[in-house]
Amino acid sequence: MIDRSMKNRWIALYVENTVGVLAKVSGLFSGKSYNLQSLTVGTTEDETVSRMTICVTSDDVTFEQIKKQLNCMVEVIKVIDLTNVPIHMKEILFAKVKDISAAEKAEVFQFAQVFEVKVKDIGTDSVLLECMLTERRNNELIALLRSKFKNIEIVRGGAVAIESISTSCR
């Protein structure tokens, strides 16, 4: 039986670190109308190779097609399906809470302590938090900040993931 349910799927790609590879990979997704939820790219221990961590929302059939199409690209060295394997994953996020009182600033500091995030900058009426949490924990922090403060600014990077050595995950 084929699962047609839509869910987040994760792929790691090892690709040639050359001009245009990111455009070709993202072009494959846009050309087929696949919506990328997250895409993060960085070089590996080998400067000629980059690793992309990609999240796409799709059903099983579409996800299999995506993996096959990526495997056919000349610039792609290796495709790893991370969806159902134990991984360690973090997402970077900056949250700026603006136009706040001294009492509200103290509350932001409490949130930072509870969520174990860093206070990176502070002004007379604002606080900047740096978060490297899971997507779920970042979502929880954003929801809490939005429920308590009127003026917040969020900058979110894509997630990076690596396969677990043991069986612990996400």
Question: How would you characterize the overall build of this protein?
Answer:
31% of the residues lie in helices and 41% in strands. The chain folds into two domains: 7-84, ACT domain (Alpha-Beta Plaits, 2-Layer Sandwich); 88-163, ACT-like. Chain A, domain 2 (Alpha-Beta Plaits, 2-Layer Sandwich). Strands 2-3-1-4 form a four-stranded antiparallel β-sheet, covered by helices on one side. The mean pLDDT is 91. With 170 residues, the protein is an alpha+beta fold.
Number of helices: 4
User: Which fold name is given in CATH as the topology of the largest domain?
Assistant: Alpha-Beta Plaits
At CATH level 2, the architecture of the largest domain is 2-Layer Sandwich
Report the portion of residues in β strands. 35-45%
- Strand and helix order: EHEEHEEHEEHE
User: Can you say what the CATH homologous superfamily of the largest domain is?
Assistant: ACT domain
The global form is: elongated
Please specify the SSE layout and strand pairing.
Blueprint: E1 7-16, H1 21-31, E2 36-43, E3 49-58, H2 60-72, E4 76-81, E5 87-97, H3 102-115, E6 118-122, E7 127-133, H4 135-148, E8 152-163
Keywords:
8 strands, alpha+beta, elongated, four-stranded antiparallel β-sheet, 2 domains, 170 residues, 4 helices, Alpha-Beta Plaits
